[in-house]
Amino acid sequence: MESILDQVITAKHLSNLASFNPHDTLDGILAALTEREREIIKLRHGLSGYDKKTLEDIGKQYAITRERVRQIENSSLKKIIKNFDETYLQEIEDITNGILSEHGGLMAETNLIKELLTSSGYNDDNHSAVVFILGQLLKHRFQFIRENKEYFDYWKTPESSVDFYDQAINKVIDIVENHGNPLSLDILINKIQETEYYKENENLTDKVVLNFIYITKKLKSNPYEEWGLSHWADISPKRMNDKIYLVLKKENRPMHFNEIAETINKMDFDHRQAYPATIHNELILDDKYVLVGRGIYALKEWGYKPGVVSDVIEEILRKSDRPLSKKEIVEEVLKHRMIKETTVTLALMNKNRFEKNENGKYSLKNA
User: Fold this and answer.
1) Where do the structural domains in the chain lie, given as residue ranges?
2) Which of 8, 109, 253, 361 is the most buried (most CB within 10 A)?
Protein backbone atom coordinates (compact mmCIF):
# COMPACT_ATOMS: atom_id res chain seq x y z
CA MET A 1 0.00 0.00 0.00
CA GLU A 2 1.30 3.47 -0.92
CA SER A 3 2.34 5.78 1.93
CA ILE A 4 0.99 9.35 2.10
CA LEU A 5 4.43 10.56 1.00
CA ASP A 6 4.35 8.23 -2.03
CA GLN A 7 0.90 9.52 -2.95
CA VAL A 8 2.05 13.14 -2.70
CA ILE A 9 5.11 12.40 -4.86
CA THR A 10 2.96 10.59 -7.46
CA ALA A 11 0.44 13.47 -7.57
CA LYS A 12 3.25 16.01 -8.04
CA HIS A 13 4.83 13.82 -10.72
CA LEU A 14 1.54 13.58 -12.65
CA SER A 15 0.95 17.32 -12.32
CA ASN A 16 4.44 18.12 -13.68
CA LEU A 17 3.99 15.61 -16.49
CA ALA A 18 0.66 17.17 -17.50
CA SER A 19 2.22 20.64 -17.71
CA PHE A 20 5.31 19.55 -19.64
CA ASN A 21 5.20 20.98 -23.17
CA PRO A 22 8.43 20.36 -25.13
CA HIS A 23 7.58 22.95 -27.82
CA ASP A 24 7.09 25.78 -25.32
CA THR A 25 10.08 24.60 -23.31
CA LEU A 26 12.30 24.64 -26.39
CA ASP A 27 11.19 28.18 -27.27
CA GLY A 28 12.12 29.26 -23.76
CA ILE A 29 15.46 27.48 -23.96
CA LEU A 30 16.46 29.10 -27.26
CA ALA A 31 15.24 32.61 -26.34
CA ALA A 32 18.62 33.42 -24.78
CA LEU A 33 20.41 32.96 -28.13
CA THR A 34 20.96 35.20 -31.13
CA GLU A 35 19.15 34.34 -34.36
CA ARG A 36 22.24 32.68 -35.88
CA GLU A 37 22.95 30.73 -32.71
CA ARG A 38 19.34 29.48 -32.66
CA GLU A 39 19.59 28.40 -36.30
CA ILE A 40 22.84 26.52 -35.72
CA ILE A 41 21.50 24.72 -32.62
CA LYS A 42 18.32 23.74 -34.50
CA LEU A 43 20.31 22.45 -37.47
CA ARG A 44 22.85 20.65 -35.33
CA HIS A 45 20.22 18.84 -33.24
CA GLY A 46 17.34 18.54 -35.72
CA LEU A 47 14.97 20.79 -33.75
CA SER A 48 11.71 22.54 -34.73
CA GLY A 49 11.34 20.65 -37.99
CA TYR A 50 14.94 21.17 -39.16
CA ASP A 51 16.87 18.23 -40.58
CA LYS A 52 19.87 17.31 -38.48
CA LYS A 53 23.11 18.50 -40.13
CA THR A 54 26.81 17.77 -39.70
CA LEU A 55 29.31 20.42 -38.61
CA GLU A 56 30.64 20.50 -42.16
CA ASP A 57 27.21 21.01 -43.76
CA ILE A 58 26.37 23.84 -41.38
CA GLY A 59 29.79 25.41 -41.99
CA LYS A 60 29.17 25.45 -45.73
CA GLN A 61 25.74 27.04 -45.19
CA TYR A 62 27.23 29.89 -43.16
CA ALA A 63 30.59 30.06 -44.97
CA ILE A 64 32.54 29.28 -41.80
CA THR A 65 34.79 26.41 -40.75
CA ARG A 66 33.42 23.31 -39.04
CA GLU A 67 35.55 24.19 -36.01
CA ARG A 68 33.84 27.58 -35.83
CA VAL A 69 30.46 25.85 -35.93
CA ARG A 70 31.57 23.64 -33.04
CA GLN A 71 32.64 26.72 -31.06
CA ILE A 72 29.28 28.44 -31.67
CA GLU A 73 27.41 25.27 -30.65
CA ASN A 74 29.40 24.89 -27.40
CA SER A 75 29.11 28.56 -26.43
CA SER A 76 25.37 28.51 -27.22
CA LEU A 77 24.81 25.50 -24.97
CA LYS A 78 26.69 27.21 -22.14
CA LYS A 79 24.57 30.34 -22.63
CA ILE A 80 21.38 28.27 -22.53
CA ILE A 81 22.34 26.52 -19.28
CA LYS A 82 23.36 29.82 -17.69
CA ASN A 83 20.15 31.67 -18.63
CA PHE A 84 17.49 28.96 -18.51
CA ASP A 85 15.15 28.77 -15.51
CA GLU A 86 16.78 26.22 -13.20
CA THR A 87 13.52 25.60 -11.35
CA TYR A 88 11.75 24.50 -14.52
CA LEU A 89 14.75 22.40 -15.55
CA GLN A 90 14.59 20.74 -12.14
CA GLU A 91 10.93 19.87 -12.75
CA ILE A 92 11.82 18.17 -16.05
CA GLU A 93 14.60 16.30 -14.27
CA ASP A 94 12.17 15.18 -11.54
CA ILE A 95 9.61 13.99 -14.10
CA THR A 96 12.20 11.97 -16.02
CA ASN A 97 13.77 10.59 -12.87
CA GLY A 98 10.33 9.52 -11.61
CA ILE A 99 9.55 7.66 -14.83
CA LEU A 100 12.92 5.93 -14.93
CA SER A 101 12.66 4.94 -11.25
CA GLU A 102 9.29 3.27 -11.89
CA HIS A 103 10.83 1.27 -14.73
CA GLY A 104 13.96 -0.07 -13.05
CA GLY A 105 16.25 2.91 -13.64
CA LEU A 106 16.68 2.42 -17.38
CA MET A 107 14.24 2.63 -20.27
CA ALA A 108 14.21 2.26 -24.05
CA GLU A 109 14.42 5.75 -25.57
CA THR A 110 11.20 5.46 -27.59
CA ASN A 111 9.19 4.33 -24.54
CA LEU A 112 10.68 6.97 -22.23
CA ILE A 113 9.90 9.78 -24.64
CA LYS A 114 6.36 8.53 -25.27
CA GLU A 115 5.84 8.51 -21.50
CA LEU A 116 7.18 12.06 -21.20
CA LEU A 117 4.89 13.17 -24.02
CA THR A 118 1.74 11.57 -22.59
CA SER A 119 0.00 14.95 -22.30
CA SER A 120 1.59 17.00 -25.08
CA GLY A 121 1.40 14.27 -27.72
CA TYR A 122 4.09 12.37 -29.58
CA ASN A 123 5.56 13.73 -32.83
CA ASP A 124 9.03 14.06 -34.34
CA ASP A 125 9.48 17.68 -33.21
CA ASN A 126 8.59 16.87 -29.59
CA HIS A 127 10.83 13.81 -29.73
CA SER A 128 13.82 15.89 -30.89
CA ALA A 129 13.12 18.54 -28.23
CA VAL A 130 13.09 15.95 -25.42
CA VAL A 131 16.30 14.29 -26.65
CA PHE A 132 17.97 17.73 -26.76
CA ILE A 133 16.87 18.61 -23.22
CA LEU A 134 17.96 15.26 -21.77
CA GLY A 135 21.17 14.95 -23.76
CA GLN A 136 22.41 18.55 -23.55
CA LEU A 137 20.88 20.24 -20.50
CA LEU A 138 20.48 17.24 -18.21
CA LYS A 139 23.38 15.05 -19.31
CA HIS A 140 24.83 15.31 -15.79
CA ARG A 141 21.74 13.43 -14.57
CA PHE A 142 20.83 11.02 -17.38
CA GLN A 143 23.04 8.77 -19.47
CA PHE A 144 22.23 7.79 -23.03
CA ILE A 145 23.35 4.27 -24.01
CA ARG A 146 23.58 3.81 -27.75
CA GLU A 147 22.06 0.79 -29.49
CA ASN A 148 24.22 -2.24 -30.20
CA LYS A 149 23.56 -5.84 -31.29
CA GLU A 150 22.09 -6.79 -27.89
CA TYR A 151 19.83 -3.85 -26.96
CA PHE A 152 18.09 -0.78 -28.33
CA ASP A 153 18.92 2.86 -27.45
CA TYR A 154 18.09 3.49 -23.79
CA TRP A 155 18.42 6.14 -21.08
CA LYS A 156 19.46 5.47 -17.50
CA THR A 157 20.17 7.19 -14.23
CA PRO A 158 23.83 7.01 -13.07
CA GLU A 159 22.89 5.00 -9.99
CA SER A 160 20.80 2.38 -11.83
CA SER A 161 22.32 -1.07 -12.18
CA VAL A 162 22.89 -2.59 -15.60
CA ASP A 163 23.66 -5.86 -13.77
CA PHE A 164 20.09 -5.83 -12.43
CA TYR A 165 18.81 -5.51 -16.01
CA ASP A 166 21.11 -8.31 -17.23
CA GLN A 167 20.06 -10.69 -14.46
CA ALA A 168 16.36 -10.00 -14.96
CA ILE A 169 16.40 -10.32 -18.74
CA ASN A 170 18.45 -13.53 -18.55
CA LYS A 171 15.78 -15.02 -16.27
CA VAL A 172 13.12 -14.07 -18.83
CA ILE A 173 15.17 -15.62 -21.64
CA ASP A 174 15.57 -18.85 -19.61
CA ILE A 175 11.79 -19.05 -19.22
CA VAL A 176 11.21 -18.55 -22.95
CA GLU A 177 13.91 -21.10 -23.90
CA ASN A 178 12.55 -23.71 -21.49
CA HIS A 179 9.02 -23.21 -22.80
CA GLY A 180 10.29 -23.69 -26.35
CA ASN A 181 7.46 -21.85 -28.11
CA PRO A 182 6.32 -18.22 -28.45
CA LEU A 183 4.21 -16.83 -25.59
CA SER A 184 1.68 -14.07 -25.29
CA LEU A 185 2.89 -11.22 -23.09
CA ASP A 186 0.33 -12.02 -20.38
CA ILE A 187 1.43 -15.64 -20.15
CA LEU A 188 5.11 -14.65 -20.20
CA ILE A 189 4.61 -12.19 -17.32
CA ASN A 190 2.65 -14.83 -15.37
CA LYS A 191 5.49 -17.33 -15.78
CA ILE A 192 8.00 -14.74 -14.56
CA GLN A 193 5.83 -13.99 -11.51
CA GLU A 194 5.96 -17.68 -10.56
CA THR A 195 9.78 -17.72 -10.27
CA GLU A 196 11.60 -17.46 -6.96
CA TYR A 197 13.78 -14.73 -8.47
CA TYR A 198 10.72 -12.54 -9.01
CA LYS A 199 9.23 -13.28 -5.59
CA GLU A 200 12.48 -12.57 -3.75
CA ASN A 201 13.33 -9.34 -5.62
CA GLU A 202 11.11 -6.48 -4.46
CA ASN A 203 12.54 -4.17 -7.15
CA LEU A 204 11.32 -6.45 -9.94
CA THR A 205 7.75 -5.37 -10.74
CA ASP A 206 5.66 -6.28 -13.79
CA LYS A 207 6.29 -2.77 -15.14
CA VAL A 208 10.07 -3.22 -14.77
CA VAL A 209 10.04 -6.65 -16.44
CA LEU A 210 7.97 -5.36 -19.36
CA ASN A 211 10.27 -2.38 -19.75
CA PHE A 212 13.38 -4.57 -19.80
CA ILE A 213 11.80 -6.81 -22.44
CA TYR A 214 11.41 -3.77 -24.71
CA ILE A 215 15.09 -2.86 -24.26
CA THR A 216 16.66 -6.20 -25.19
CA LYS A 217 17.12 -7.41 -28.75
CA LYS A 218 17.36 -11.03 -27.62
CA LEU A 219 13.57 -11.21 -27.37
CA LYS A 220 11.07 -10.09 -29.98
CA SER A 221 7.36 -10.26 -30.74
CA ASN A 222 5.91 -11.50 -34.02
CA PRO A 223 2.91 -9.88 -35.80
CA TYR A 224 0.60 -12.10 -33.72
CA GLU A 225 1.94 -10.37 -30.56
CA GLU A 226 3.69 -13.48 -29.29
CA TRP A 227 7.14 -13.22 -27.72
CA GLY A 228 10.10 -15.51 -28.19
CA LEU A 229 13.80 -15.58 -28.97
CA SER A 230 14.58 -13.18 -31.80
CA HIS A 231 16.10 -15.85 -34.05
CA TRP A 232 13.14 -18.25 -33.84
CA ALA A 233 11.37 -18.83 -37.17
CA ASP A 234 8.01 -18.31 -35.40
CA ILE A 235 9.18 -14.86 -34.29
CA SER A 236 11.34 -13.57 -37.17
CA PRO A 237 10.45 -15.72 -40.17
CA LYS A 238 12.98 -15.10 -42.94
CA ARG A 239 12.11 -17.77 -45.50
CA MET A 240 8.75 -17.64 -47.27
CA ASN A 241 8.10 -21.20 -46.09
CA ASP A 242 8.45 -20.08 -42.46
CA LYS A 243 5.89 -17.32 -43.07
CA ILE A 244 3.44 -19.77 -44.66
CA TYR A 245 3.77 -22.16 -41.73
CA LEU A 246 3.30 -19.38 -39.15
CA VAL A 247 0.21 -17.99 -40.91
CA LEU A 248 -1.46 -21.40 -41.17
CA LYS A 249 -0.55 -22.25 -37.59
CA LYS A 250 -1.99 -19.02 -36.21
CA GLU A 251 -5.09 -18.93 -38.42
CA ASN A 252 -5.63 -22.58 -37.40
CA ARG A 253 -7.63 -23.49 -40.50
CA PRO A 254 -7.07 -24.59 -44.11
CA MET A 255 -6.45 -21.65 -46.43
CA HIS A 256 -6.29 -21.00 -50.17
CA PHE A 257 -2.79 -20.10 -51.39
CA ASN A 258 -4.10 -16.68 -52.53
CA GLU A 259 -5.37 -15.97 -49.02
CA ILE A 260 -2.08 -17.10 -47.50
CA ALA A 261 -0.20 -14.63 -49.74
CA GLU A 262 -2.58 -11.80 -48.80
CA THR A 263 -2.21 -12.56 -45.08
CA ILE A 264 1.59 -12.65 -45.26
CA ASN A 265 1.60 -9.22 -46.95
CA LYS A 266 -0.79 -7.79 -44.35
CA MET A 267 1.37 -9.14 -41.52
CA ASP A 268 4.31 -7.12 -42.88
CA PHE A 269 6.98 -9.55 -41.65
CA ASP A 270 9.52 -7.69 -43.76
CA HIS A 271 9.68 -5.80 -47.05
CA ARG A 272 9.49 -8.92 -49.22
CA GLN A 273 6.28 -9.23 -51.21
CA ALA A 274 4.53 -12.61 -51.13
CA TYR A 275 3.19 -13.66 -54.55
CA PRO A 276 0.51 -16.38 -54.91
CA ALA A 277 2.58 -18.35 -57.42
CA THR A 278 5.55 -18.42 -55.04
CA ILE A 279 3.33 -19.50 -52.16
CA HIS A 280 1.76 -22.24 -54.28
CA ASN A 281 5.18 -23.61 -55.23
CA GLU A 282 6.28 -23.72 -51.58
CA LEU A 283 3.07 -25.53 -50.58
CA ILE A 284 3.46 -28.12 -53.34
CA LEU A 285 7.11 -28.89 -52.59
CA ASP A 286 6.86 -29.29 -48.78
CA ASP A 287 5.16 -32.39 -47.40
CA LYS A 288 4.14 -30.68 -44.16
CA TYR A 289 1.33 -29.09 -46.18
CA VAL A 290 -1.61 -31.13 -47.50
CA LEU A 291 -3.87 -30.16 -50.40
CA VAL A 292 -7.42 -30.46 -49.03
CA GLY A 293 -9.39 -28.64 -51.73
CA ARG A 294 -8.95 -26.66 -54.94
CA GLY A 295 -5.88 -24.57 -54.05
CA ILE A 296 -6.64 -25.01 -50.32
CA TYR A 297 -3.92 -26.30 -48.00
CA ALA A 298 -3.77 -27.47 -44.40
CA LEU A 299 -0.98 -28.53 -42.07
CA LYS A 300 -0.19 -32.23 -41.96
CA GLU A 301 0.25 -31.95 -38.19
CA TRP A 302 -3.48 -31.26 -37.88
CA GLY A 303 -4.14 -34.87 -38.87
CA TYR A 304 -4.60 -34.36 -42.60
CA LYS A 305 -3.00 -37.00 -44.80
CA PRO A 306 -1.67 -36.48 -48.31
CA GLY A 307 -3.24 -38.09 -51.34
CA VAL A 308 -6.18 -37.79 -53.73
CA VAL A 309 -9.80 -38.29 -52.63
CA SER A 310 -9.63 -42.00 -53.48
CA ASP A 311 -6.71 -42.38 -51.07
CA VAL A 312 -8.73 -40.72 -48.31
CA ILE A 313 -11.70 -43.01 -48.96
CA GLU A 314 -9.43 -46.06 -48.92
CA GLU A 315 -7.99 -45.00 -45.55
CA ILE A 316 -11.51 -44.51 -44.13
CA LEU A 317 -12.71 -47.93 -45.35
CA ARG A 318 -9.55 -49.65 -44.16
CA LYS A 319 -10.13 -48.36 -40.63
CA SER A 320 -13.80 -49.36 -40.64
CA ASP A 321 -14.85 -52.79 -39.42
CA ARG A 322 -17.84 -52.81 -41.78
CA PRO A 323 -18.97 -51.53 -45.17
CA LEU A 324 -20.05 -47.87 -45.13
CA SER A 325 -22.88 -46.04 -46.84
CA LYS A 326 -22.14 -43.24 -49.26
CA LYS A 327 -23.45 -40.73 -46.71
CA GLU A 328 -21.07 -42.05 -44.03
CA ILE A 329 -18.12 -41.93 -46.42
CA VAL A 330 -18.97 -38.38 -47.53
CA GLU A 331 -19.18 -37.21 -43.89
CA GLU A 332 -15.77 -38.69 -43.10
CA VAL A 333 -14.10 -37.41 -46.28
CA LEU A 334 -15.35 -33.87 -45.63
CA LYS A 335 -13.48 -33.94 -42.32
CA HIS A 336 -10.27 -34.25 -44.32
CA ARG A 337 -11.00 -32.47 -47.58
CA MET A 338 -12.81 -29.26 -48.57
CA ILE A 339 -14.56 -30.59 -51.66
CA LYS A 340 -18.03 -31.13 -53.10
CA GLU A 341 -20.03 -34.34 -52.48
CA THR A 342 -20.01 -35.05 -56.21
CA THR A 343 -16.21 -35.40 -56.06
CA VAL A 344 -16.61 -38.19 -53.50
CA THR A 345 -19.31 -39.84 -55.59
CA LEU A 346 -17.03 -39.83 -58.65
CA ALA A 347 -14.17 -41.32 -56.63
CA LEU A 348 -16.43 -44.14 -55.37
CA MET A 349 -17.09 -45.13 -58.99
CA ASN A 350 -13.50 -46.41 -59.22
CA LYS A 351 -14.29 -50.14 -59.42
CA ASN A 352 -10.62 -51.05 -59.21
CA ARG A 353 -10.52 -49.79 -55.63
CA PHE A 354 -14.08 -49.92 -54.24
CA GLU A 355 -17.06 -52.25 -54.49
CA LYS A 356 -20.71 -51.74 -53.65
CA ASN A 357 -22.80 -54.52 -52.05
CA GLU A 358 -26.50 -55.33 -52.45
CA ASN A 359 -27.30 -52.91 -49.58
CA GLY A 360 -25.65 -50.01 -51.37
CA LYS A 361 -22.69 -49.88 -48.98
CA TYR A 362 -19.05 -49.66 -49.94
CA SER A 363 -15.94 -51.59 -49.01
CA LEU A 364 -12.43 -52.01 -50.42
CA LYS A 365 -12.23 -54.36 -53.36
CA ASN A 366 -10.60 -57.67 -52.47
CA ALA A 367 -10.39 -56.59 -48.83
Assistant:
1) 4-141, 162-229, 240-289, 309-364
2) 109
